Amino acid sequence: MSIFKKVSKLAVLSLGLTAGASYAADAICYNCPPEWANWGGQLELIKKDLGISIPMDNKNSGQSLSQLVAEENSPVADVVYYGVSFGIKAAEKGVVASYKPKNWDKIPQGLKDPQGRWFAIHSGTIGFFVNKDALDGRPVPQSWNDLLKPEYKGMVAYLDPTSAFVGYASAVAINQSFGGDMSNFTPAIDYFKKLAKNQPIVPKQTAYARVISGEIPILLDYDFNAYRAKYKDSANVQFVIPQEGSVVVPYVMSAVKNSPHPENGHKVLDFVLSDKGQQVWAEAYLRPVIATAMTPEIEAKFLPESDYKRAKTVDFAKMAEAQSGFAQRYLNEVR
């Protein structure tokens, strides 16, 4: 077996692709799941416009960072997509490279690492992604406290907050809403203990399809997934920003240090921040980091601004710093 085939096979095994998948890939992106944030559409456009084939990858943010660290001496991925706290951690661990893509100057300060080791491409707001049909006549919950009611037993899901960024972001939202801060996660831990009595579902990967099917009636998730379900998949769903409050958080990308296809990786990062790439995110109901990509027609499909006023940003560096401590408490006290 040639060296090229060995490397390609390693990439396929690492990505967990199906046995029938082709080993040919022009670049590897960790955590680019087709059901999430319209990565499927973005990768199709990259293939069409750039001629770069990228296999879809269903890791979550935590799994992607773990893989980068494990492969540090022999990287497989070229670029990686993850929640901001994982991007900060990846930079600290030295597994990503400095690269400032096209449109770098249009990214607001605070949403990019000064050295170019990570930068935001879009953001989302945490709330309730609700399949109204699956509620069987129950009211759509409007608050974090509503989810604790016995009538929602077995109906609420959240992604594993020790691994998936959306799970950790949900924990931060809960914690902030009940008076906690990055140095005190007791409110969130107490909330998850109470929610445990309602037998929540805790998947590790995106559960979009499970909400659409009605298997999961209520998922703690981002606004963009709920809007996509409503407007693209015509599902009877509703997005709710809880009355107590929530958070807005960015998703970021990085170039992988010593990657096998750095030039292609850089082209991909340039593309997702281009006007065309940012428009893909806007059309998938994400807030593009370059604000001009958001059209009034798309904006009109979001909840009113009065609802979004309940969602705040946080200190993302402190959020990253607090993540390991929260995860350990969750494992020790909740799970």
UniProtKB/TrEMBL annotation:
GO terms for cellular component: outer membrane-bounded periplasmic space. The keyword tRNA-binding does not apply. One of its GO terms (biological process) is thiamine transport. Keywords: Signal. GO terms for molecular function: thiamine binding; thiamine pyrophosphate binding. Residues 1-24 form the signal peptide. PANTHER family: ABC TRANSPORTER SUBSTRATE-BINDING PROTEIN (PTHR30006:SF2), THIAMINE-BINDING PERIPLASMIC PROTEIN-RELATED (PTHR30006). This is Putative spermidine/putrescine transport system substrate-binding protein. It comes from Marinomonas polaris DSM 16579. The lineage of its organism: Bacteria, Pseudomonadati, Pseudomonadota, Gammaproteobacteria, Oceanospirillales.
